[in-house]
Every structure is written in C-alpha cells, then in structure tokens.
Amino acid sequence: MRAFKPVVIGSAFLLGAATVAVALPASAASGCSVNYAVSSQWQGGFGANVTMTNLGDPISAWTLTWSYAAGQQVTQAWNATVAQSGTAVTAKNVSYNGAVATNASVSFGFNGSWTGSNPAPTGFAVNGVVCTGGTVPTSSPTSSPTSSPTSSPTTQPGTTPDITVNTSTRYQTVDGFGAAQSIWGSAWSAAETQTLVGTGSGQLGLSIVRTGVSPVAGEWATHVNSLKTAKSYGSDVKILASPWTAPAAWKTNNSRTNGGKLKTDYYDDYANHLNSYVQYMRGQGVTVDVTSVQNEPDWHPDYDSMDWSGTELRDFVRAQGAKVQNTRLMVAEAVNLNYGYTDPTLNDATARANIGYIGGHLYGTEAAGRLKAYPLADQYGKPVWMTEWNFHEADGSGSNIWGNPGNQAVWDETLDDIMRTVHRSMESNWSAYIWWYGKRFYSFIGDGEAAYGTTAGAPLKRGYAFSQYAKYVRPGHQRVALTKSSKVSPLEVTAYSGGGKLTLVLLNRSTSAVSNAVLQAPQNIARAEHYVTSISANAASQPATVNGSQATVSVPARSISTVVLTL
C-alpha cells in the first residue's frame, strides 16, 4: 500500500476574496473485479479463464478465492497455483505474475470437472477483499474539506471501459491463418494467390499455405509457381507441406490408397523422400517452413492415405527425423487432434527434439473435448496448429447459393460454425488455424463452378469473414489478456499485441448490436481502425473514435469485427 499523500480536490476553493487550494489526504485503497469465463465445456469437464483486475493500490502478490455451488472440481491449472478444499478454491500467483499495478489485470486458466450443472461461481475476493468492481479505503481520511468547490474539475475522468486489454499477461504467439492448395488438382494462379495472401484492399491476408507432398517426385513442380508467388507477394507467409502417402512399394498394402503402413525397413527411405521434397523446393526458391510426417494417420480412405500409430510416429521421428533438413517437422495431423498420436512423441526427449510443431484436424475435435489447450504441448513449447477443417452444410443438397453474399444460410454457418471455431482455437492457445481448400465454392475465393454460383478467383463471404483474423492478426503477434463488462457480454473477443499495435477481433453472434463499446488500451492510442464483415458488409471500414487511451466502436449484430489500435 502507498503512504498518504495530499491530492487537490477540484481546481480551487473561494474563501472570502482569496483563492486557496485546499489539500485532502487520500487513504490507501483496495478493490478488484473478476471476469470468470468458461472457455470450453464437454460432458463431465470444462476449461475456464479467470482475469482479475486490481482497482486499488499496486499489489506485489495476490490470492484469489471463490466457492463453487454445484460441486465442480479444479483438475489442472496454468499461470497460477490452484488448490481446492471442498467447495472453496484458492488461486495464488506464480513467480512471474504476482505484481499487479493499479488498473492492471492478471489472468490464469484451468481445467475442471462437473456433474449436473456448471454455474459460474460468485463471491470472489483478492487478498481477503471482496471484488465488488469498486474500491474501499483501508482507513478513513483524517480531514475533509470545510467547503464545497465552486467549480467542477477542469478535466473529466475517462469513460468506464467495456473491454480492457492487459498486455502484461500474454499467451501464445500466433503463427498465422491459412488454407490449402488443391492437393491433387491444379495450382492457384498468380492473381488468385495474390488475392489470398495479399493484405491490400479486396485481399484476404492468409499467412500460411498448405500444400501436398506427392509420392511421385515428378509431380512436385505443379505448385512451385504459386508457392513462390505466396512467399514473395505475401507478408511472412509460411508453407506447410503435408504428405498423404509414401510410394506404394514402400507400404504393407502395396497401394497409395486405403491406408496401409509404411514398412519399417523403408523408414529411412521415407525420411529421405521428405528431405528430397524440401530440398527440391528450396532449390526452386521456396522455403518449406513446416513439414508434416503424415496427414491423418488415423484415417484410411480409398484415396491417398497411410496408417500410423502414435508409437510408430514416435519411433520414426526419433530415428529418422533429423534427416529432414531446412524445415521443422510436425506430428501428426490426426483427424480430431487425438493425443494418442502425439503424446508418445512429446513424452520422448529424442523424438521431441526432432519436431517443431503439433498438428491436428478439427473434425470431431470439439465433440471429443479437445478444442482446448493441449497442456503437454504447452509444457514442451511445441505450438499447436489446426491444419484442416472442411464444413459446408448450408447448401443442403447443393443449391446455387454460395456466390450470393446475402444468403442467410451461408452467413449463419460462416459465423456460427467457422468463425466461432477460429475464436475457440485462439482461446485454446493454438498458434495457427488452416482451412481446407482456399479456392472452392464454399471457401475463400470462388472456383467458377456454375452449379454453385461463384466466380473463379473472386473473394467470397467466408473469405472476408476469415480475413478479419488473417489480415490483421499477423505472424508474431501475441495473444494478450482482456476483461469485459456486462454490456459487451454477447461479444466473443480475443486481443493481440505486435508491431506497435493492439488488435481485437470481436465476434457478435447475437441478434443485438453493441453500441459505443469503449476499448481501453494500456497507453495512449494514436489511431483506431474498425472493419466489419456481416451479411451486408465485406471487411468494410467503420467509424472509431479515440480519446487518450480509449477507443469507441459500435459492433453490429451478427457480425465479426476487427479493431486495430496503433499505439
């Protein structure tokens, strides 16, 4: 707590004919507010994020307490030491986040279990002080003014914020947002590639391009030009190369299709095959940043595919991974981020050292309770990438709707399914989100198929919506903490810091607009930009006002917004 010091009340008091400034000793104060949010929930389990804002004097250590009313149990926590006795929960700071300045915030997360219901707790207290959203003095003032001021203060306090960004609490570093080229078909044209990766007007800002590693080396040239364009035209674009199968002769079923395992005596040949692809592309002027060991090792369809177990992937990476040079390996793009395909590698020190990333697909991941932080990957510093999802059920049996930007079914699916899972993946500390084909009638740019009503190469509604993340949350930006008022409770919000800017993405899936939302930055704002995609707008610029360290925007109903604050 700070010592008493005099403060000036108002600007002046009039005593007779003289103007005298009267000082009043201020008391030390305590106070706090808490935002408790369930970030994901599945049968019997849930994840939650807690953000405490210190409204009183600076503190050097904190203990946050609350009680559950429905028997919930905390099972695992990060960024805090959490203990539970009966219904009472105690969370204490760890070594690096104990100091919290006035109006600053600190956040931590945890996983828990529940049965029956999972209501949010109440009665939060920090260091024994109940969090009311205001402050209380620890002692009464020793004196009070003898008269009232005859004029109002010359400066007014800032507006109470609705979203407060806390850059002192940081989460994952973002690697990017992207989409795949056609794995078996033709490449994107130069113009199409520029539309997808460019950051100019009418462009979508993708920063990751996924491409396939054919088992036939003679087919590798197909995508060279589009990959070169992506690297040279885009900003910090990364290339992810994913193999669907090894050559047929190296597999137990002697076929490219229907799964089949890689014969163990061909493990070294397969490592050399992946390395040869990387070096070939490098010779063409294309750096392959990330190379996957296998696309969907747990899926064995009647097209290119190959079957692995988690231990087989570990054994391959441990013995052969170092042979794949000038790239970082990824394990292992399982259909629903099944940890059984990645835990063995993460738990083996040698294998773990030979990989850079954990990959997985979104199919069934949410239903399986894995659309959440992956603690083992976080523990060992391996970024998690969501590398594929394809969802387009809005057209039912395939009606000609995708080229119509005002189609309600397309927009509802885009907002409630696609963009919601992008938001959830960011809250889950994942570092990348990669859609399936970037060029397709249900994707980001049209493919020109007459039956679906799109124009080849023209941006689609889903592309504009995805650009609200991709174009403004750039590689190297870091997700940071925030707190929200009840006014903006319908908004699903994440915030990012990087390049001298704060970027907020606001998903409003409710049917009500949020007018004049006040955003609080930790320092003065030089410029605020606001872009909105809705059923009637495509990444359209919207008004934003700035007052010191605050910006004010209005968020339309059923929309996705991005606010970029230049500091």
Q: What's the total number of strands?
A: 32
What's the rounded overall pLDDT mean? 89
- Percent of residues in helices comes to 10-25%
Strands of the widest sheet, in order across it, are: 29-28-32-26-25-24-15-27-31-30
* Spatial extent as radius of gyration: 27 Å
**What about the largest sheet?**
10 strands, mixed
**Large-scale geometry:** globular
Weakly predicted, low-confidence segments: 1-27, 138-157
Q: Kindly, what is the distance between the CA atoms of the first and last residues, rounded to a whole number of angstroms?
A: 30 Å
Helix tally equals: 9
By helix and strand content, what is the structural category? alpha/beta
Give the DSSP E fraction (strand runs of 2 or more residues). Answer: 25-35%
Descriptive notes:
- By secondary structure, the protein is an alpha/beta fold.
- Helices cover 16% and strands 34% of the residues.
- The protein is built from nine helices and 32 strands.
- The strands form six sheets. A ten-stranded mixed beta sheet has the order 29-28-32-26-25-24-15-27-31-30. An eight-stranded parallel beta barrel has the order 16-17-18-19-20-21-22-23, surrounded by four helices. It has a five-stranded antiparallel beta sheet with strand order 8-11-6-5-14, with no helix packed on it.
- Helix 8 packs parallel to helix 9.
- The two termini are 30 Å apart.
